[in-house]
Design goal:
Aspartate Aminotransferase, domain 1; Aspartate Aminotransferase, domain 2; 13 helices; single chain; alpha/beta
């Protein structure tokens, strides 16, 4: 075998999301683009806001001398200072440029953070259901993922987290709004989580970090995303502009370290180093300059809210059980069959592409990404009805 056995195993078990997306390519070739309804991939369809186009043209046509040279590994100091001002206003804490590291998206931020924190065998607690790449990010840096279940409504179970902490626990990853459920964890539960982590730190004599993954922070529907920085001093939040500015292909984001973190200076230096040795070197120069003045901008989230409401009503009318998401652009219905993989195959026979819940470590459900055209949702709903009737009978 010409490749690593470990990677071969990972490929075989990896992303149901990509697997279903590729199945869609096959079905479209057979049945035609317009007859296949693909809800497998969270690839934003909304174009970036007008302010992005203006900033992009300005940055590209009037660059300062040296705009395409190497820069400090954490990113341009002036860009980091502008983002720090935004964070200070948002969270009420004294952020400075020394708390912000520009990264190649939230994935780059998460990998830099984990590389800076983990020793071989350290444990990272992850709340299920979760974005499946976490498993590989943690393994990348010698860590061991420990899955902690949320409750039946996908809300944070602080007691379950507390029970999972051991002397090897180094971090807890919190993704809110959550992919795949759209759940936002409330401030009160996050505060309790912070107390649990503080107690565990004192008991085990080592820092435990709260790592926030927040690419959907601005995509919310009448709710607010509580500040993780208020919950626990040792917090790092990873974010990107893939979703809020509609820029997934530009790979631009940042990591922010809580100013209250006792080791913030050492952690920042470590993350600047890991940014380099992981091969990112620095975040894309042009995109750093573009997003610096766009921290208060966002795509029109009312459009996603309309899609959510349209899809949610149609699925419930067809007989599906679905918890209403508070943010992001996913639905996570309960599978009408106990075997969610089997039901996803039923949907595929009706030319609907979904991702089984086992791909997110929560079997019995399936994920639908509704960042698609309204017409796709409307035309797919009869297919969902046909599928549930097939397995439940009329």
């Amino acid at each position: 075998m010409p490749i690593s056995k470990k990677i071969e195993t990972f490929i075989a078990s990896a992303s149901w999301i990509r697997r279903m997306f590729e199945e869609g390519t096959r079905l479209r070739a057979v049945h035609g683009e317009e007859n296949v309804f693909d809800f497998s991939l969270g690839n934003p369809t909304l174009e970036p806001p007008p302010a992005f186009q203006t900033a992009l043209v300005r940055a590209a046509t009037a660059p300062a001398p040296g705009s395409h040279r190497y820069m400090p590994n954490p990113g341009y100091p002036d860009v980091r200072a502008k983002i720090a001002m935004h964070l200070a206003s948002l969270h009420g804490k004294p952020f400075s440029a020394s708390h912000v590291l520009m990264t190649t998206g939230a994935a780059g931020a998460a990998n830099c953070t984990l590389k800076a924190l983990l020793d071989p065998g350290d444990e990272v607690l992850v709340l299920a259901p979760f974005f499946p790449e976490y498993r590989f990010y943690i393994d990348n840096h010698g860590g061991r993922m420990v899955v902690v279940e949320t409750d039946e409504d996908f809300d944070l179970d602080v007691g379950a987290v507390e029970a999972a902490i051991t002397p090897r626990t180094r971090a807890v990853i919190v993704n809110s709004p959550n992919n795949p459920t759209g759940r936002i964890y409330e401030a009160e539960r996050l505060a309790l989580l912070g107390e649990v982590l503080g107690t565990a730190q004192r008991r085990h004599g080592r820092s435990i970090y709260l790592i926030g993954d927040e690419p959907y922070r601005k995509i919310v529907y009448g709710a607010e995303v509580p500040s993780l920085f208020a919950a626990h001093p040792n917090t790092v939040v990873c974010t990107s502009h893939s979703k809020d500015l509609g820029l997934p292909g530009e790979r631009i984001g940042y990591a922010s370290i809580n100013p209250d973190c006792s080791d913030s200076g050492a952690l920042f230096d470590a993350m600047a180093f890991t940014n380099r040795i992981l091969g990112y070197v620095n975040a894309p120069a042009l995109m750093q300059r573009v997003v610096a003045d766009l921290q208060d901008e966002s795509i029109d989230t009312s459009i996603y809210r309309h899609k959510r409401d349209l899809f949610l009503a149609g699925l419930r009318d067809a007989g599906y059980e679905v918890v209403e998401p508070e943010g992001a652009f996913y639905l996570f219905p309960k599978s009408p069959l106990p075997d969610d993989v089997a039901f996803v195959h039923v949907l595929a026979r009706h030319l609907v592409l979904a991702v089984p819940g086992v791909g997110f470590s929560r079997g019995g459900y399936f994920r639908l990404a509704y960042c698609v055209d309204d017409q796709t949702i409307e035309r797919a709903l009869p297919r969902f009805r046909e599928a549930i009737l097939e397995v439940k009978g009329s």
